[in-house]
Amino acid sequence: MRTPRILTLSAFALALSLALPAQAANDADLAQIREQLKQMKENYEQRIAALENRLAQAESTASKAETVADKAEASASQAQAAAQQASQRPASANSFNPELSLILVGNYTNLSQDPNQRRLQGFMPSNGELLPAERSFNLGESELTFSGNINHLFRGTLILAIAPDNTLGVEEANFQTLGLGNGFNLKAGRFFSSVGYLNDIHAHAWDFSNAPLPYQAFFGGQLGMDGVQARWLAPGDTYFEVGVEAARALSFPAADETRNKNGLMSGAVFAHVGGDLDVSNSWRAGLSYFYAEPNGRDYDDPLNDTTYSFSGSSKTWIADFVWKWAPNGDASRQNLKLQGEYFNQSEDGTLVYDVHGTALGTQSGSFNNRQSGFYAQAVYQFMPHWRIGYRYDQLYSGNPSFGHDPLTSEFPSLKDFNPKRNTLMVDWTPDEFSRFRLQYAQDKTRPEATDNQFWVQYIMSLGAHGAHKY
Amino acid sequence: MKRLYAIVLAVLLSAFVLPAHASLKIFATVPEWGALAQEIGGEQVKVYTATNGLQDPHRIDAKPSLIAQARSAQLVVATGAELEIGWLPVVIRESGNARIQPGQPGFFEAARYVTMLDIPAVLDRAHGDVHAGGNPHIQTDPRNLLKVGEALSARMAEIDPANAAAYQSGYKVFADKLRSAIARWEKEAAPLRGVPILVQHRAFPYLQNWLGLKEIGSLEPKPGVEASSAYLAEILAQQAVQPAKMVIRPAYQYDTPSLWISERAKIPAVTLPFTIGGTPEAKDLFSLYEDTIRRLLKGWQG
Predict the structure, then answer these.
(1) Which of A27, A229, A266, B76 is paired with B279 by a 20 to 30 Å CA distance?
(2) % of residues, chain B, pLDDT over 70
(3) Inter-chain contact A467–B52, Cβ cutoff 8 Å?
(4) CATH classification number, A103-463, choose in 3.30.750.24, 2.60.40.10, 2.40.10.270, 2.40.160.10
């Protein structure tokens, strides 16, 4: 305020000096003028002071108003933040409950052959379900999933399978690490082994209604484990992952469930590599190895009422490959998925066999065999919500060697044969929560008959929106 | 077996010994956040964008390449509000990267910093593919970029304190430029205020809120649910009573439903870029809105 005042005064002085004639005047006049000048000066000074005062007042009011406005703004933004938080805030402690999801599956099947006569000729029965299990209407496995973060370190998952015969099974019950870092992931509990491609994908997410033949022949459908898994993802732009599993394997070819020993039972190692070719094409390939030492793995031969028991070593190699195409990386309209896996299983040990009702009694001999098989499939989404797929499966039974005393006639179900199957499917997926599938398979898994299998299947998914693997 | 251990150990060691990258590695789920991080970070950041403008952001595959990129990222910038729920959780879990797990500073969700619209009052899948947290397509209102950018620059500074000043000034330069652009765009788009429109997918509530467009119908009876021809006929009948000026769709969606309506109702079908790369003109965050407004004005003029 100082500057304007000085300016005003000097302007005033200047105006005066210009206005007043600079000639000499008499003293009385001079005194009068001086007096007038003084009065004027005082007068102006008073008015300036008053103005200054008013200005200062106005200024302080303005700044007050500004403060008030600031405060209002702050409280408004606080209110907004509070409102937003309130809308995001969980309603109750229930919000800490795990994510819940439910899968409902059911089907209608029409089989030209008796499903009770079905077998994979040339292969030891893996005791896995040879789906479809029954004719006509069937309920599939209902799957109930609970999952959630345990804390900042671990995530837990429980997947229960309720079988149509009202039995409850634990498909998965495991925890995995969240923040081990440096590409490491650890998992422990019950889980599906990460060997191959399809093995750790749940049945409801498969592209066909049943497992490929190699999975049925070599893993009894799907290889489950109670154990630990460690994986490491290499740094770099190309996906390269290696993993190792040590476990009590829950299915064929192992027989760990009844094993009574400390330490290692079955183990697996695997490596996966993958990447993008361009924006439309991506792929993943893998190589896996599974080792088990089945001890007393029993099976019944459906053809001649005999019980067998195998003990020895079982080694399985798997090579898998997946290729996905989606124009410009957008799979919502059209996409194509090519997938194939090759299995090679060799077993070496002794076979104990007991032919009921004959004079032979219990016999045993050395046994070794190398068997293999593959499947290849293509699934094409030709328009939104509609897909069509074809799969070809083939198995090679090999020629089992029974050591010094070949008794091939005693092993009718192991007589060499190469089972084959052609499968066609079309499915409709209105959204990611529901799917209907029509599937036809021409099943040539035994020499005496071809089974024409039709089935209609529904898969419904409720609850938490689970993310899917590649 | 011993040799195998030796190889694994050697690979592991090499991973630790390799020099750390100087720049902040950012994994952006969608192009708009990738561009925003680049605007803020400039030379200090290396941005990987997981998707392009013509991909449906709801439906992305958890591809091996994405997992590999997430493995080395220091910061994941996602939209949140369940937009990426079908794939990002898997990518993050499989990455084995502790820094980017939800709850860590390296996990950033843009939707947390803006006022969400369309928060459903009732959560029921019978209402279609609704998002519990509200409509996740927040990037269609550029004013949201200011809020997200401010929070993002602070987060980048937190993760990479050495370049904190650069991020703050990067954001300031960007925000100033964006603010004046927004003022310009608002002026240009003034004629669009109150214009009735149809949308093919409810992808634009934030854009409508910004420019004052009036949505009078959606070609999806429920979010993510495709229209039956009966439903489209209904929309067409409504057009006689309450005519819309145009029908808009995000570029990643196929054009059949909006063209169907456009042809019969004799209104223009307008394709909006939705994000960077959605149209050839939408090359960055500025041309994205410029092109959006240009196309809307063109549609409005008929």
Answers:
(1) B76
(2) 93
(3) no
(4) 2.40.160.10
